[in-house]
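Researcher: Here's a chain I'd like modeled. Treat it as a single chain, no partners, no ligands.
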Amino acid sequence: MKALGLNPYLPSWEFVPDGEPHVFDGRVYLYGSHDSRNGVSFCEGDYVVWSAPVDDLGNWRCEGVSYRKDQDPLNGAPYEGKLPVTGMPSGTPENPHLLYAPDVAKGPDGRYYLYYSLDFTNVISVAVSNTPAGPYEFLDYVRTAKGEIPNVGRWFDPAILSEESGNYLYYGFAPKFRFPGMEDAIFPGAMMVRLADDMHTIISEPVCVANGIDTAKGTGYEEHPFFEASSIRKIGDWYYFVYSSLQGHELCYGMARTPEGPFTYQGVIVSNGDLGYQGNEFAVNYTGNNHGGFVEIDGEVYIFWHRQTHGTGFSRQGCADRVQIAEDGTIPQIEITSCGLNGGPLTAKNTYQSYIACHLTEKNRGAVGHVVEPAPGEMFPKLPAEMPYITEEENANYEKGFKPYITNLREGAVAGFRYFAFDGDEKEIALELRGTGKVQVLLDSPDGEEVSSMTVDSAGWEERSEKLKKTAGVHSVYIKVTEGTVDFAAIGIV
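Model: Modeled as a single isolated chain. Structure tokens:
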């Protein structure tokens, strides 16, 4: 029996953002960074790989650790060659540079090549494996045959494409503000170089394929300049370059007929707050940086993206949703959902954990914006008192010993799910709640038709069940707190 495809698609306890999906030998392999629960920095963990059968996209399994921070010579691993000049002190096993967003391609020799950057180092590293899941072993750094790294653009967030025409590496970082040591730097945008068949030697000059803030004026990228998060795919006759704009929360794209580009800006694919979707001006969830790529499976195309949890920018989880490609190759912006890889709405007659909510807002919709990050010296960020967020608590009855839930839903706060398919004969709805307050169950919008309501007054978790107004068809469902403050763990419909 196929497993349900949900958002996030990995278990609640796993945090793999920056997802790059690739199909190898009948499975989708997911490569990404590795955040921590209640993280205090991006990408604190070693790389792990998850995979799923192409015909069962809800059935993900962990392939284990694929690559460790201490395998890179810039973190102290043995290396006989000359280390690149990074402008930063080398890391150590005790205090390593962190592994940022990776990508993988199958090379001309049939092996799998992992590309990544380390935090605060202007260099891209390469590791290699005989299998897509790894483990990977360090190979070398991307540089010319003379050992040089061209000083054009920032070597960051690599994306790799290997095909019959050649091997193409994309990279770049183009911030609005200059970080220390970058005051005089010029960031053209997303850059591309060709690699030799050894998959690490540069054989062409870097060229800009998508404009950043320093070069975007007067181009299609002016309103959505390239910032980071390069990703590349060929679908049909088009090459698609996906990236995170300076807005941060959105993934945009450009199209070209060749991998060399330049890529013509086309629009926004997804925002992790649905900003801009059908003119929406208010975020439907707390936003933060975004990064992801396409995968095509049996004629269907999905965009992988990530969301923020725990009220911080450092505990990110991967999500995915289906896109529709028009006859001319363009892609309208999509809506984020709870049913992601399911191929359609979720069956209403079931019980679902609340953390699959794709809508999470407080009373003041205009205040729902970027999640906060810890101030220097803070272990955890100081969250606004009104902010609801996804978290978990220790509970031995749950996988890995953690029970996920949404906390701090105050008066006017809403948790929403898109979409459920109702048969019309569902009689009751049950919510697992704690706290003191009243909630409404609404259809189709946070101000939609009320189909049930209930009260809760309990310091511990309590399942409350009430009659459900007759409902048929496909609907979004919203749980709205009208009085008090509650935590919300699960929704069940029977």
